[in-house]
Design a protein that fits this description.
The complex is a heterodimer of chains A (268) and B (217).
Chain A (H helix, E strand, L loop, with lengths): L3 E4 L1 H8 L3 H10 L5 E3 L2 H9 L1 H14 L3 H14 L3 H13 L7 H25 L18 E2 L5 E2 L15 H7 L1 H13 L5 H13 L9 H14 L6 E4 L2 H11 L3 E3 L7
Parallel strand pairs in A: 1-2, 1-5, 5-6
Antiparallel strand pairs in A: 3-4
Helix pairs in contact in A: 1-2, 1-3, 1-7, 3-4, 4-7, 5-6, 9-10, 9-12, 10-11, 11-12
Chain B lengths: L4 H4 L4 H14 L3 H8 L2 H4 L1 E3 L8 E8 L7 E9 H4 L5 H22 L4 H16 L9 H17 L6 H12 L9 H13 L21
Antiparallel strand pairs in B: 1-2, 2-3
Helix pairs in contact in B: 6-7, 6-9, 8-10, 9-10
Classes of the chains: A alpha/beta (268), B mainly alpha (217).
Chain lengths: 268, 217
């Protein structure tokens, strides 16, 4: 069993934001590990991804007066394949199973309560897995928690304005210090002619990031690197836990890191 | 030097009664705080809980004169809307409704009974919880608590509920007693108590087609 299990963003959502069963699966999968670790990079990815959409969904519930409006809004999310659309879908299923009759505004209020609780508790849970000074890729570690304004809206102000600036961000140094491996990843991903859009963006970001150092790089490159950085910053004698095996496993094979799927029996 | 209430109530009954009245008069928020915190006996003042259609709170001083038996003196009767002039009556109905849930949960765990009877009582308890739907939309804090309670009914109501969980629910709910406001700090204590007893209070999720991806980047 790996000593340190790095929790990637998808596994972190299951661990802290989903439901009791999903959390139990993650904990069972990592039961022999000496420690679970969430790095600041993963926390940042959570904040600008899943959590930000959850916050947006929550704030939408305050804007509408009936659950039907939120579900209509959610149809757009379904088409785009956002994971948070699954939250809305789950809620619809939950409502169908309700034994007590609720009108549209009551259903909306119940959803608002659930989202609010999920954001508040989920963030608290995620932060618990951060270990001080364990920040391999040097991502900024000054993320504030989401806060509620007096009108009930959540705001999560991310300090992204300074992302990519060398004095605020360690990613460029990290990539350059490990340029040989990152170049190998790029070459391997690039050689796959059936790569998906996400991988294509990743290849482009890798190409940009290993160029001669410039003062500032676009933060989008850092975001698109995502899976590569998360796999690479995993300890060599550790493992990274993910639900996103499709992207993680090939990268893990190239850089020699162990990738685990959240379900037992997956890609050890 | 200002005398503490804990000292006052141990003095001779007649002197103590006057001093308690004076103390309460000089500290207008004291009764409200005493009503909300439920840490009443320590301070020497107790509040009656409004039940049924009653909207008044009676405050008593519990006097403990040294070397003499305890005595109880009624201090005041204050209507809830006077205690909270800025709040709607719906908030007080909430406080009473949640109290009725707490009372029933406590009754179930305190009175030994057969498993079948407990199940029947738990059904009634869940019925009272579901009736809290009328308070949905009152505030985000209320939405959160009701969301937790409804999730408990959905998650735990599918099979017989062990007495230990009913006890846990009663204990968790007691953190909400007398609360007309529900700030996050109070809700977190409530949720932590539920967690301690292994009570699943998160809405169950279906994750069909969920591969953990967070598209698009």
């Amino acid at each position: 069993m790996a000593k340190t299990v790095h929790i990637d963003t998808s596994a972190l959502v299951d661990l802290c934001f989903w439901d009791k069963e999903a959390r139990a699966v993650v904990l069972a999968r990592t039961s022999g590990a000496s420690e679970l670790l969430v790095t600041p990079y993963v926390l940042f990815e959570l904040a600008r991804g899943f959590l930000s959409y959850l916050v947006a969904l929550h704030n939408k519930t305050l804007q509408f007066t009936d659950i039907a409006d939120v579900i209509g809004y959610g149809r757009r999310l379904y088409r785009q394949g956002y994971r948070q659309a699954a939250v809305l879908q789950s809620y619809e299923t939950y409502l169908r199973g309700q034994t007590t009759a609720l009108n549209g505004s009551q259903q909306l209020a119940l959803f608002e309560g659930d989202l609010c609780k999920r954001i508040r508790r989920g963030w608290r849970c995620a932060e618990n897995y951060i270990i001080p000074r364990r920040n391999p890729c040097g991502c900024r570690d000054d993320l504030p928690p989401p806060v509620r304004e007096e009108n009930g809206h959540y705001r999560h102000k991310l300090p992204t304005a300074n992302c990519g600036e060398l004095e605020n961000c360690g990613i460029r140094d990290y990539v350059l210090a490990n340029a040989t491996e990152f170049k190998r990843v790029r070459a391997a991903l690039e050689s796959n002619e059936t790569r998906d859009d996400e991988t294509t963006k990743r290849v482009k970001a890798l190409r940009e990031m290993v160029k001669l150092p410039r003062k500032i790089f676009h933060k989008r490159h850092c975001w698109n690197l995502g899976d590569v950085v998360i796999v690479h910053e995993t300890a060599k004698d550790g493992a990274v836990l993910t639900k996103n095996l499709r992207h993680f496993v090939p990268i893990g094979q190239i850089v020699g890191r162990t990738v685990w799927g959240v379900e037992r029996g997956q890609a050890d | 030097m200002k005398e503490s209430l804990e000292n006052i109530v141990t003095q001779d009954t007649l002197a103590a009664e006057g001093k308690v009245r004076e103390y309460v008069k000089k500290n207008p928020d004291f009764l409200k705080t005493a009503f909300e915190t439920a840490a009443l006996t320590k301070s020497g003042v107790e509040a009656s809980r409004p039940a049924g259609d009653n909207t008044e709170v009676e405050f008593y001083a519990v006097l403990k004169p040294k070397g003499k038996p305890d005595d109880i003196v009624r201090l005041d009767t204050i209507p809830l809307d006077q205690l909270y002039p800025d709040l709607s009556s719906k908030r007080f109905r909430w406080a009473r409704a949640i109290d009725s849930v707490i009372e029933l949960a406590n009754e179930i765990v305190k009175s030994p009974s057969t498993e079948v009877h407990v199940e029947s009582e738990v059904s009634t308890l869940f019925g009272r919880i579901l009736a809290l739907k009328e308070f949905l939309g009152m505030s985000s804090g209320h939405n959160q608590v009701i969301s937790s309670l409804f999730a408990i009914v959905a998650n735990e109501g599918r099979s017989p509920v062990p007495e230990e969980k009913v006890r846990g629910l009663a204990e968790a709910l007691s953190t909400l007693r007398h609360r007309v406001h529900l700030p996050d700090a109070v809700i977190e204590v409530f949720e932590d108590r539920l967690d301690e007893f292994g009570i699943d209070h998160l809405m169950p999720m279906t994750a069909e087609g969920d591969d953990g991806e967070d598209r698009p980047h």
